[in-house]
Amino acid sequence: MIERIDELLQNNKAFVADQLRLDADYFHKLAEGQHPEFLWIGCSDSRVPPDRITRTSPGDMFVHRNIANLVVQTDMNLLSVLQYAVEVLKVNHVIVCGHYGCGGVKAAMSGVHHGLIDNWLRTIKDTQDYFWKELTGLESPARFDRLVELNVIEQVYNLGKTDIVQEAWRSGGRPYIHGWVFDLGSGYIRPQTSMINNNETIREVCKFHNGSVGR
Ligand code: CO
After folding, report:
1. What is the pLDDT along the chain (215 residues), one digit of tens a residue?
2. CA 151 to ligand 1 center in whole angstroms
């Protein structure tokens, strides 16, 4: 058990040596600052490492991860990440990436009590209710897969409903928002939405017609 932790630190030393071999100034440049073009909102699942599956490097991607890649309007952590990424780092793309086989989505689909986490997963149950007509026509595992996809699409809408994103769209026509699902079984990312960078696709009731709210 202890050896596994030591291994991580040894790996880190090897990583530093490898990077310095490629570029002696690598860490000096890294320390100068970040200008990421992407914000990644993904699941905490250990099988979905954003940089590995997109072949991006340190500095390319600002990252927020939580169970089932949710955008919850009262989540100060997510909102703070989003505001910083959009308003300060000025990312051009926000990617919500879920994955098939998501334990969070599966737990939300079941009637089993899981404790505290059920509160976090509650919005997935709402999505399931909202699309029940479509979902009830599917057998498992297709129903599970579809709810994973619908959950991602809902989070894209949830991003578009925030005043942070609406204000950025209004003033700068960015960021583009993307809904993706990572297919663990093949390694491929399956896009679920077209590129969205305006509020035309956001449900009427959620548009802020007079600019942002609260400012
Ligand atoms: Co997951």
Report:
1. 778 999 999 999 999 999 999 999 999 999 999 999 999 999 999 999 999 999 999 999 999 999 999 999 999 999 999 999 999 999 999 999 999 999 999 999 999 999 999 999 999 999 999 999 999 999 989 999 999 999 999 999 999 999 999 999 999 999 999 999 999 999 999 999 877 777 776 666 566 655 443 32
2. 11
**Could you tell me which CATH class the domain 34-205 is placed in?**
alpha beta
pTM of the model: 0.92
Residue spans of the domains in the chain: they are 1-32, 34-205
Ligand 1 center to 184 CA (angstroms)? 11
Tell me the two tokens of residue 145: 């897969």
Give the residue numbers marked as catalytic.
43, 45, 47, 99, 102
Q: How far is the CA of 118 from the centre of ligand 1 (A)?
A: 14
Burial of 90 (0-12, 13-18, 19+ CB in 10 A): middle
Residue 141 CB neighbours (<10 A): 12
